[in-house]
Amino acid sequence: MITARNVKKIYTMGRVEVPALNGVSLEIETGEFVGIMGSSGSGKSTLLHMLGLLDDPTEGAITIGGEDVLAFSDSEKTRYRLQRFGFIFQDYALVPELSALENVILPAIARGIHLHDAAAAGRDYLDRVGLVERQDHLPAELSGGEQQRVAIARALVNNPDILFADEPCANLDSTTVPTSTARTRGRCSNSSAGSTRS
Amino acid sequence: MFENLRVSVFLAARALQRGGRGRVLLNVIVIAFVFTNMIFLPSVISGAVESYNVQTIDFMTSDIVIGPRLDERYIEDADTLLNRINRIPGVIRASARFSMPVSVDFEENTVSIEVKAFDPRDEVEVTRIHEFIEDGSFLGSGDRNEILLGVLVAGHEDKSKDFYDSLGGAAVGDMVTVRYANGVVREYRIKGIVRTKSYIADYMAFVTADEMESVLGPGPNTRASEILVKATDDTDLDALKRTILSFGVGEEVKTWEDATSDIVAESVESFNIINNITVLGSLIIAIVVIFILITIKTFTNRKQIGILKAIGIKKSVIINSYVMQVFFICTFGVILGLVILEGMVLYFTAFPIEFPDGTVTPIVDAGMLIENTILLFISSAVAGFIPAWRITNENILDAMRGA
Ligand SMILES: Nc1ncnc2c1ncn2[C@@H]1O[C@H](COP(=O)(O)OP(=O)(O)O)[C@@H](O)[C@H]1O
Ligand SMILES: [Mg+2]
């Protein structure tokens, strides 16, 4: 279960304070699939970043599985992200120096999975997003939608407990959406957080 | 631990592979030259010291040089001492030399130098002067009215080319007048010109011991200014020195190293300072190059570093991937540097560097190579670590938003 209590995020740019989140509280049950809707600039990405332990809220509390995750040290958060989260970023965030397949398998290798097994799993996930024949291409050689599908495969490769997807289908066309959504188990509108095992 | 290393290697390998091979090659070349620079000057200096030592042994001191007792000018009864030394196992030969200040006249030129007298049969076994006769020939045993001149004494016809006072181009066959310090004046035919390239040996003149005996007139015994001792290659010179001292001779007994240590030790000291400055300079260049390289690399990789952290890659793994890239560049830089060095050493062995007082072949010492390689790796690792560490400590989202 994920809980957020009165989470606030204020970005300060010089003297200007930009409130991005103004006291958000929510609960996401294990196995629940939650979509977050809102106009652009309303703070959807910011909320996912806070829940995904990528940045600290200015105020408020977040627990995952009852644990006060905000109290974690930097390296504990890093390990938590690797072992429990999958993240599909709004701008795909692929590693430019790695091929599609290498991008997908990196989180698996980092978890200690043997390169050979990781590559097999990676190919499987790339196949599901219809990109297995592009596995050796660099992100720069892929279209926006293709990059997004690689990002989806990467988010899934470690079979994460919690999947954060920030507008995961914004660049997917109508034919790819069904195959991708089958995996992300979500509708392709706006941001979503799916908690499968917490 | 092992997994972390694996991920670092994976990231480093891909970065090298895809992050611009030209740039990697350029950096390898820069490190190669830095490394060559660290090693080459010290190796030339080692070569120069070695060449000086060889000259000292070949022309000045042989392996061991015995001088008079502290308060005396000559070694008395040199023949007896020679015989005793010649019987020591390991001694090839001992040669007694007698020196006397003279002035030498040729045409309108006069030079004041030292004449050394020796028995040519002994001398050829203890020094190599006889191998460096530029013109004419070496002295023979019975020679009485002939002299051997160092090339700097003979000089050039155009005396402006000479560094020291010279006879203005005296040549083999010319007659010179030698005025000995004891008042005796002799006329000699120049039998040979010596060119050893040692400043000191080339500014001397040599006559036979027989000739010197007649100049000195009858004395109580045979006197010598110094006795040079040549030993076999496997002789421990310090042990030989102790053996000679154990005769109770009371003379000054020095190995060639003792004899040169004051002058050479001092120059080696200054050379070492130069060497250290060179090494330091090279290291600074290496540090700056690696620092700039990794700073640029991490800065252009800012976004990528943010992504890696976001998906859960540890900071230390990311930093290590950059340090490994530095190690890769250094490893190939050092290998290429060794190839360049080997080429330079081969070249300068075939065509030695002409120093005024001899030819110098660079000597590359294995200890120096290892020491400098380690220094280069440590400084480069530090220079790569710092910028990587700085960027990986950035806020994840700021980094991801960055270029
Ligand atoms: N790093 C930042 N610095 C300043 N303002 C930011 C930063 N990130 C987001 N914002 C602001 O926070 C608000 C919410 O942004 P975001 O969460 O990206 O919205 P959404 O994803 O719903 O479109 C926006 O007004 C945006 O300009
Ligand atoms: Mg957004």
Quick rundown:
Chain A is α+β, with helices and mostly antiparallel strands and 198 residues long. Chain A is built from six helices and eight strands. Chain A has a four-stranded antiparallel beta sheet, with helices on one face. In chain A, strands 3-8-7-6 form a four-stranded mixed beta sheet, with helices on both faces.
Can you characterise this structure?
The complex is a heterodimer of chains A (198) and B (403). With 198 residues, chain A is of the alpha+beta class. Chain A contains six helices and eight strands; from the N terminus they run E-E-E-H-E-E-H-E-H-H-H-E-H-E. In chain A, helix 3 (100-110) crosses helix 4, helix 3 packs parallel to helix 5 (144-156) and helix 4 packs across helix 5. Chain B has two domains: 2-56 and 263-401, no CATH class; 69-250, no CATH class. Helix content of chain B is 54%, strand content 19%. Chain B contains twelve helices and twelve strands. In chain B, the strands form two sheets. A six-stranded mixed barrel of chain B has the order 2-3-8-5-7-6. A two-stranded antiparallel sheet of chain B has the order 11-12. In chain B, helix 2 packs antiparallel against helix 8, helix 8 crosses helix 9 and helix 10 packs antiparallel against helix 11 (366-392). Chain B is elongated, with a radius of gyration of 32 Å. Chains A and B meet through helix 2 and helix 3 of A and helix 1, helix 9 and helix 12 of B. The complex binds adenosine-5'-diphosphate and magnesium ion (MG). Magnesium ion (MG) binds at residues 44-45, 90, 166 of chain A.
Brief descriptors of the model:
heterodimer; A: about 200 residues; alpha+beta; Rossmann fold; four-stranded antiparallel beta sheet; four-stranded mixed beta sheet; 6 helices; 8 strands; about 35% helix; globular; B: about 400 residues; 2 domains; six-stranded mixed beta barrel; two-stranded antiparallel sheet; 12 helices; about 55% helix; about 20% strand; elongated; binds adenosine-5'-diphosphate; binds magnesium ion
